[in-house]
Each structure stands twice: as structure tokens, then as C-alpha cells.
Amino acid sequence: MIRGNTGRYEETVAAGEVVRAFVPAPLPPDPPLDLAVLQGPLERALLAIGRLDALSTLLPDTGLFLYTYVRKEAVLSSQIEGTQSSLSELLLFEHTEVPGVPFDDVVEVSNYVAALEHGLERLREGFPLCNRLIREIHGILLSSGRGSGKAPGEFRRSQNWLGGSRPATAHFVPPPPAEVPRLMSDLEKFLHREQPGLPALIRAGLAHVQFETIHPFLDGNGRVGRLLITFLLCHDGLLRDPLLYLSLYFKQHRETYYDLLDGVRRVGDWEAWLAFFLDGVAVTAEGAVVTARRLTELFRKDRVAIQEGGRRTGSVLRVHRAFQGRPVASLPDLVEWTGLSFPAASAAVGVLGQLGMVRELTGKRRNRVFGYERYITILNEGTELP
Q1: Residue-wise over 8-47: b if at least 16 C-beta within 10 A, else e?
Q2: Which CATH class is domain 310-379?
Q3: Which tens digit of pLDDT belongs to each residue from 286-320?
Q4: Cα(37)–Cα(2) distance, rounded to whole angstroms?
Q5: Fewer CB within 10 A of the terminal residue: the chain, N end or C end?
């Protein structure tokens, strides 16, 4: 539906230049959404999320999948912002700072994991999804590395812009800083207002665009905006575990994503954006279920191969189980997680290496780190850098 502008323009000064900043109208859209045209995509998305939420029936322990899946999301979301870090590098970095790994990039991704886990823990404690929590998440995201000097945890007090080397050539200029507190307060009220006619998935799609349009921080807005989707779905009860992340879908359809955001701001076509968003939810949820099935089958086949291997079956299976939860591990890690002695854990890793399941990642003779290679390969899909 073409509504015209979904806000107003206000002249402001940025870097010494007069620009027209866009101030969005509060949610929900006016005139109201045409939910009839979204019924098909909404039903498919809800069905896919239902299957995803039942993921615990596919894996012996959802946490085994969640640990690495969260890290895959961190890599993808950060890659959209220009980092060059891979999933393997992040997993390795969490054990030791490895020469050759782009340090700033991996710190940025590691901060994303910490911010995500902090937000989810706060929600589990019953803390509301509010501006205070959004600022806390942002503060952790920019706590170190690049962006740490750009007011972590604070709404911006200066004008920003998107695209272009200077404000006058910018692709989009978000609201003036004086408007940010009011706009974020309005968004918070929308998130908590009872709206029986507006499904939770639709609300998440609306809130994501509004947050991206306000662009309330000096840096890190894209990553926080993508996290907001997952937090909303967990907060509203659509997901028990944070298993839905749209970064890969947005990365694969980047131009369409930005064009549709512009379409909302310029002509008010919320329905086109929401149809794309709902398709992304369905595709992403279906992909996560497929990945879970592939991992379940990988674990089963490898377990059978181990059981056919002979004398050390018990200790090897314990180490294999540990690698399912943490696909990158050192020998001291495995000793701690399995309760095995160092020689027993070392021997078990040797067996897994002979079976082609595990390989050493650092090339060192001491302080070695091992990876469950096939597991990492499956999770790496979509994060490959050109």
C-alpha cells in the first residue's frame, strides 16, 4: 500500500552542512496495515517458527546447537558491517589470540556474542525489553575494539548519516539527535502496548524498520537492530530459545533489504517490506531445522563409527560428546568437560583424528586446539568470505 511519507523532514546541521533529516511517525502505520495481503507469508512464517521452536525434538540437547549457532549469527551480522572474521577464527579466538587473525574484527564479533547473551539472560530474568536494555546491549557491543570511542550504551547527541562521504551526499539522514529520546520512547511504548490485531511477527518487522530509521546510536545500529528481532520473538513467546537470526537472509538479499527500507520511508509501503521480512523468517527458520537434522545425522554416524572402533569407546564417546557442545577445544578443556585424565583425553582426540572427525587448528606443538571439522563446515555455510 502506498501511503506517502511515513514521517516528516526537518532541516538540521551536520558537519557544517544543512541537511534534511527524516523524523518517522510513530507506530503502528496509519492508515492501518492491509493484513489480508500478508496472510500467506505470515502463515508460512508461523509454521516454520513452530517447527524451529520444536528443535529440541531433533537434537539431544538444544544447547549443543545453540552455542555455535549464536556465534555464526555474530559473524554474519558483523560481516554485514564490514568485518572479515570467520566462524573458525572466532571459535579459535575464544581459546587463544591467534597470530594472523584480524584482531579488531574478532573482538567486534566476540562483543556481539557477549551482547546477545547478556540480552537473553536479562529477558530470562524477567527484565522488560526496553530502552534501558537496548542501551546495555549496545554498551557491551561497543565495549572494546572499533567503535569503543563512540558513546557505548548512550543514545547519540550528534547528527549521523548513512551512505556518502559527507552529509550533503548522504543516502539517508536519520532524525536530529534532539528527537532520538522521544522517538525511542515511542518505540518502547509500541513494543509494550497491547495490540490484539497485530501479530507478534508483524510487530517485530515494524519495530526493526523503526529502529533502523531512528538510528539512535553513533555506531552499531545495524547489529542492535538485527538482535532486536530475535529478542522480540523470545520476549513475545514465539521462541523459547534464540534460534532465529535473519543476518544471513539480509546478507544474501542486501540490495532488496535496503530498497524496501527506503520504500517504507519514501512511500509508506509497509506491506512490501513485511512480505519480504516474513519470507526471510520462513526461509531462515526452515534452514535452521535442516541444519539441525544434518547435525543430528552427523553426530549419529560419527557415534556409530566410534563404537565400531574398539577398546577406548567409552572415553572417545565422552570426548565426542564434548565436541558436540564446543566444536573447538584444547586438551585441558576436554579434561575439564569430560572428567577424563589428560592421557585418556589425549588418546581419545588421537582416535577422533584418525577417524577424520577432529583436526588440530593452530599448527603448534604446545597449547594445541582441536576442531570438530565436519560440524564447523556445516555451521560455516553462508559465512564464507570472498
Answers
A1: eeeebebeeeebebbbbbbbbbeeebeeeebeebbebbbe
A2: mainly alpha
A3: 988 888 888 889 999 999 999 987 667 899 999 99
A4: 14
A5: C
